């Protein structure tokens, strides 16, 4: 279980303190598929980075299965099962797709096993398994390889920040299926930062972040009508649902 207690994140801007996240309290139960959404600049990516240990909060604490992990860095959190999917895989000269997947599993695997992960993300495994991870791969291919390595890591919590960014419509359809599969197979906690309706549609739970604050959260069935404007607002109110009327 992940618990954020009174998380704030401030930055210095022109010698003034700017609050990017303001007093966020959030508890996520195990094995949930959570989508974090909200307007641009609301603080979603910052929240994801704070959970992954890429940023350290200015205030507040983060607990993972009861342990205070606030001061642990990204590697130490990864060892405890919190994994952040980068937009593209980390590259080292000469490393192949097979090497990456094997490294992610943390044990020796055969080519067939590695191919299973690639096939699951819609890549024709035999075309990719021996390829070097470099600029000759397209953005969509790199992203799917990153997702395959995340699946191979099989960690208790995985965070994806806008996985749909920069991929074409066809790859996007495929990506949705990959996430549906991850969900079905119960790959632990999955947190996705997204604006995409099709990703919101497969969430167990939706968290709305706006203006650095947690504005709402709840099961998909409750949140979708709010997000897509199907709730009654007081007459004359032009606010979106996450704004105060
Ligand atoms: N290190 C930083 N220094 C200054 N400003 C920052 C820093 N990190 C984030 N911000 C600002 O904080 C705000 C929230 O950024 P963040 O990337 O978390 O938003 P977001 O909700 O993920 O947005 P989007 O949907 O556009 O990706 C933005 O205005 C951003 O410019």
Automatic annotation (TrEMBL):
Pfam families: ABC_tran (PF00005). PROSITE patterns: ABC_TRANSPORTER_1 (PS00211), ABC_TRANSPORTER_2 (PS50893). Residues 2-236 form the ABC transporter domain. GO terms for molecular function: ATP binding; ATP hydrolysis activity. Keywords: ATP-binding, Nucleotide-binding. InterPro entries: AAA+_ATPase, ABC_transporter-like_ATP-bd, ABC_transporter-like_CS, Molybdenum_import_ModC, P-loop_NTPase. The keyword Nucleotide-binding applies. SMART domains: AAA (SM00382). The keyword Transmembrane helix does not apply. PANTHER family: ABC TRANSPORTER I FAMILY MEMBER 10, ABC TRANSPORTER RELATED. This is Fe-S cluster assembly ATP-binding protein. It comes from Catenibacillus scindens.
């Amino acid at each position: 279980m992940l618990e954020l207690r009174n998380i704030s994140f401030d930055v210095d801007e022109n010698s003034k303190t700017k609050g990017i996240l303001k007093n966020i309290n959030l508890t996520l139960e195990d094995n949930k598929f959570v989508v974090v959404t909200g307007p641009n600049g609301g603080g979603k990516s910052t929240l994801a980075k704070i959970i992954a240990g890429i940023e350290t909060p200015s205030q507040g604490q983060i607990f993972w299965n009861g342990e205070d992990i606030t001061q642990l860095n990204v590697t130490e959190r990864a060892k405890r099962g919190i994994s952040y999917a980068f937009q593209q895989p980390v590259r080292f000269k000469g490393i192949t797709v097979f090497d990456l997947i094997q490294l992610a599993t943390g044990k020796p695997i055969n080519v067939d096993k590695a191919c299973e992960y690639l096939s699951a993300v819609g890549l024709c495994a035999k075309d990719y398994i021996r390829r070097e991870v470099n600029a000759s791969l397209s953005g969509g291919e790199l992203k799917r390889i990153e997702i395959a390595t995340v699946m191979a890591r099989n960690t208790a919590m995985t965070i994806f920040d806008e996985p749909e960014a920069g991929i074409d419509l066809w790859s996007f359809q495929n990506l949705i299926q990959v996430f549906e599969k991850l969900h079905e197979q119960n790959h632990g906690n999955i947190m996705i930062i997204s604006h995409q309706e099709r990703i919101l549609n497969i969430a167990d739970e939706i968290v709305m972040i706006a203006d650095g604050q947690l504005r709402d959260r709840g099961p998909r069935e409750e949140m979708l009508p709010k997000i897509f404007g199907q709730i009654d607002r007081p007459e004359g109110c032009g606010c979106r649902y996450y704004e105060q009327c």
